[in-house]
Amino acid sequence: MFKLSEIKELIKLVDQSSLEELEIQNEGSKLLIRKPGKPEQIVVAAQPAVPAAAYAAPQAQPAAPQVSVHSEVNVESPAADKSHLHTIASPMVGTFYHAPSPDAPPYVSAGSRVKEKTVVCIVEAMKLMNEIEAEVNGEIVEVLVENGQLVEYGQPLFLVKPE
Hints:
Layout: H1 4-16, E1 21-26, E2 29-34, E3 40-45, H2 53-56, E4 66-71, E5 86-89, E6 94-97, E7 113-114, E8 119-125, E9 128-133, E10 138-143, E11 150-151, E12 156-162
Antiparallel strand pairs: 1-2, 3-4, 5-12, 6-8, 6-11, 7-10, 8-9, 10-12
């Protein structure tokens, strides 16, 4: 099986390369990573344990089960009631951080009042910490990403109710 940290590192490497997709098989597991524009797909296949009874009498072996998980990321899914909200989007590919350091409180959370130049988060790209500003005066309605999450260029980070 693949560890989450390994998967994150592979995603980062594929994102920074010219590869469109990467498929890896390891100890009966299979991982497929595709760049945006194609549906993201993670396929995990594992060989089941064969019961002892199967060794006693020759019988047809059932095919190994295959578990597939498919997820498509729809970056822009505007809901009718959210059309009046301003979206703060990531200006680059990188890692989202909600605070200046791990032990510091988040820059903003739902309900926080912001001004155009208020720093709302950091996006780390190539070891550079880039402060992202609110761009509008208003109130943060929703934080759309988790701390430490990899984000894409143009991916919505926050929804703001403008004043």
